[in-house]
Structure formats: C-alpha cells, structure tokens
Amino acid sequence: METAVDVEKGTAAIKQQFLTSKEKFHEFLESGRSGEKGDGPDKDPEEPSEEPEKKRMKLDNDGDRKEKKRMRGQNKCRPHVKPQSYEDKRLCPSIIQERETKCFYGAKCRFIHDVSEYMSTKAEDLGEQCYLYNNFGKCQYGLTCRFAKAHTSPDLKNLVNEDLYKQACDKETVRNNLDKDLQKRLRKKQVPFTGADAYLKTISRGKKPEEKITDKTSTEEKSTEEKSTDKTDECPAVKEENHNSSGETTADNQQTQDPPVKTIGPITDADIIKLRPCEKKQVDFRDKLYLAPLTTCGNLPFRRICKRFGADITCGEMAMCTNLLQGQASEWALLKRHQSEDLFGVQLEGCFPDTMTRCAELLNQNIDVDFVDINSGCPIDLVYKKGGGCGLMTRTSKFEQIVRGMNSVLDVPLTVKIRTGVHQNSNIAHKLIPELKKWGVSLITLHGRSREQRYTKLADWEYIHTCSNIAAPVPLFGNGDILSYEDAMKARETGVSGLMVARGALFKPWLFTEIKENRHWDISSSERLDILRDFTNYGLEHWGSDTQGVEKTRNFMLEWLSFLCRYIPVGLLEKLPQKINERPPFYMGRDYMETLMASQHVGDWIKISETLLGPVPKNFSFLPKHKANAYK
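The chain above was modelled as a monomer; its predicted structure follows.
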C-alpha cells in the first residue's frame, strides 16, 4: 500500500521497505545518540534543522509572493563566528616556529609567550597521529597542533623527521601563493600595468576597442578556425579579406599599418606585433568533464576529492578582481592550485574593463594557470546590481571591452561562463554567443537557466543544443541537472563539446567515475565516510591542524554535508536514476551511518564532523550558506 510520502509531488521513489516517517526517523537517530551528553551545540541547530519543512510549506503556497521571495537565495542572517575566537589564549608565532630571535613586539604582543600557561588552557588533542607530520615530516603548527602528541618531545619541542621533511621540501604541492613583496606593492599601488594601460588608452575616448583592427582580427580567427577543422598543427598565416584587382594580397599594407597605440620615440616590436591566438597556450577542452567553480564548497580540498574521482578540468572559486588588485590574502587564497590539478583555471568577477584587464595582467605575470574564466553568470544581487555576473550579459559594450582587454594581456585562453539570460522567458545567450566568438573567447560554458529561475526550474537542454550549434567551432560546455551517467549521455546528445558538473558533484563527487564508466555506483556508507576522512586530512593540510584550521575544516565540511545529505543510495531507489530536483523522503538506510548521512538536521551533520574532528567548541554554531531551492 502506498503512503502519502510515495505520492507526494517532487519526491524521489524509494523502495517501500526503507520508507519511514519523520518521527521514527529521528527517533532511530536519537537511539544511536543515547548515552551521549546533550551539549550546547546540539541545541543551537534546532531552529535551522526545521528549515526544509518550512520551505516545503512555502513552495506549496503559490499565492504568497512575499513568502516565496523570502525563501529564495542564501541564509544571509546566519551566525558568523571567526575560527580564531574558539581559543581564549593563543601562543605567539615566534614560540610556535621556535625562532632564535625574541618576539618583535615584546611586552606589547597580544599573544602569550609562556608555554606552560598555554598548555594548561589548550583544548585536548583530537588524536594520536598527525597527518601533517606523518606525510611531510614536520608539522608547522608545533604545540598548537590538535594532534601535537605525535610530534612533541618531553621538553615541549617540535619533532622533525628529517628524511621525510627533505623530500617534502623538494616538492611544491600547492602553487599560486601570494608573495609578501607583491602584496605590499599592490597595497601601495606600485605594480605597473603596462599592457592594460596601453589597451585602456584605446577605449578612453569612448571608441570601440581596436576599432581599426577589428576586421583583421576577425579574419585571423576565421583562418585559425578553418585550419583547426582540417586538423593541421601548423600556425595559420594572417590574411586580409580584401584583395586588390591584380589578385595580390595587401600584406604590405598590413605591415605598414599604424600601431593601435601612438608612441614617442623609436618604435619597438611590442608596438606593432600582437600575440596571435595561435601563439597563445593551446588547451584541448573537448570531451572533458569540468568541475564548476563553486563558491564556498569548491575549495581546494574538495577539488582534490573530485580530481581523484575523475574530474578533468578544475577551476578555483569566483574571485573578485578588485580584491585581488588590493592584495587581499583571503581572495588570493582562492587562486591556489594543487599539484594534482593538471588542467586548472581561475574565475574572475568584475564589471569594468580597467579592473578586469589589470587583474588579468597581474595574474598572467604572477600565477600558474591554464585558462582564465570570466563569470558572467552569477545571479546573486550583490554582484548583479553592480553590473557584474549576469549583468554583463546585458551590458554588451562593457562586456566586449572586458573580453578584448583581458585577451590582449593574457598568454592563456580566456573562457566565459554565461546563463540563458536574465529574465525567465527572455533568452539572450543565442544573441551573445556570436559576439563572444568575434571577441576571441576560447570556450563558452552555458548554464541552462536564467537568473530569475535560479534552481526552481529544470535546465533547458534544448536551448543549450541550439546554442551549441551557434557556437561552433568554438567549444561550448553545457551545465545543469547532471546527477547520473544517464543525464550525462542525454546531455552529450545535444552536441556540446563537454560537460560542466556543479551541484551533482556536491551530491556525489564519485559522479565523475560513474560518467566515465557508464554505471551506477552503489557506494556504501563506510566508503562515503572514508571520502569525508580524506577531505578532513586535505583540509588540515590546507587550512592547518591548529584549532583555527580544525574549525575551518569543520565549517567547510558542514557546508558540503548540507548538499551531501540529499544523495539517495542506489540500492534504496525504486526507480533509477535519482533526479536532482527530487526531494528525498524520510528513509532508513541499510546501516546507522547511512541513515545518519541522510538526515537534514544540522545536529546530525555536526555529529558526523565530530567522528572525524572531535567535539565542537562550546560556543559553536552553524547554519548552511545555501538554501535548497531545487526541490519541487
């Protein structure tokens, strides 16, 4: 006999023997927690844990527009506690690093210098083994490490495995770190932008960029495209469209053409020779699986997980170009690249040609990437109202100046990520794509939804198919609603050059393996817990193994668990595959951990994190950043 859950619209079909009620579900999980103390952190998430139920009621009430508006977007009023606030007393870095010289600040230092005093207030260690010490021979966090017992001598000195440490020093595991000298020069505005300034002079008087050489550039691109379709590896020669009456080309006129920037004094090669598209670094994007740049969740440890499961292309989180130009360390951290990321790019957000072009030149000279992506698909109000993100799609003049300017200073391909449009019933991507081809982008990624839709509607793959034909021969990647290899197969039938995976990778990062092997993976709860354990280790390596690093790792893991809990194990489904917009009903897993991972209660996510990172601090609180708008 079918229950109410079975016939509820938008709910995934699960085998009858696994279905249960909300009360029995939470009662079962509470029985597993019996014997544990009910600390403060379990009480804090009580309110946000009810959020999925509230959103279901709002979606059913179609008449109340205000309620629906409040449901959209992010949890903007969520509590924010800095990770460093979890420690009352912090040890001075001069003591942690065991420097020979004394602290520069002396008695005015805001950290403590008495080791015995710090050890008396330090939280209890989380384990006997330190991941950093075991893999790199030295833990740079010393006494502050939450696994310090593994590498602390009886006289409270930090132990070092010399052989392992020497091997680790020879390898550069993470690249694109912010140089302190560069940061100082950026803050003092002492970094020159010669290439960007030269380009900006051409548009300073309100003229279209490179107005005199637009035709020539377009013919260069056409000739390049024709050669590429013939599969020749030779660099195509630049030809003029116009031929004189005798049949001779105007090559001599091309060489004597005035440079785009007037110079004083001798003319150099840089004044008259421009890097042609064929001379830039070439990247083969076709038939690749692309992990989307995911804000908050698409951090370096998560990308390492996806890379291990078969992601071909990875991209850093969206970075604001103005913050990068100011030398903000937190923004530059988004550009870091792990050695396992063999095809890696960064995504920039901005709305003006001067800042975007200067930022592109800055990154071109100081970091190692394979491509740079322009975010013209971000739907959030903070970005859109300034004219960035989706706003660029309607500001084609500025968009052109940004693309041409960044292309003029980059030695790597420039890519663009767009949506179908801004408004729900007004697609404009098909009009913009021919212009993007003229402007010289190397790859276009199309998300099959408009800004207004967000995730409340399914992606329009028929429209992506239309745009893919328009974009040829420029590769176009499709993005939207891919959660299984069947979804990927249907998407490839539209003729796209490759697939971008976003939320599907958050639901199940092993999706890349399923797509490449054309199979469903009925992954066990123990295997999923091992994935979270690997994420924990990668997080401790990236953010640190002290209290601040542990709580940062925990916070990002909880953000990920807010998506991971929506995955339904293959063995429990009545009908395959699971659809990304279907809400999981309350069900009992095949073991306790599988049931715990299915919970949308924040307290249960915290419990999972405590099995890997120990108990949370007393003043800990958490509310996920993103709301689940996709459930219908």
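Residues 1-7, 37-72, 209-262 have pLDDT under 50 and may be disordered.
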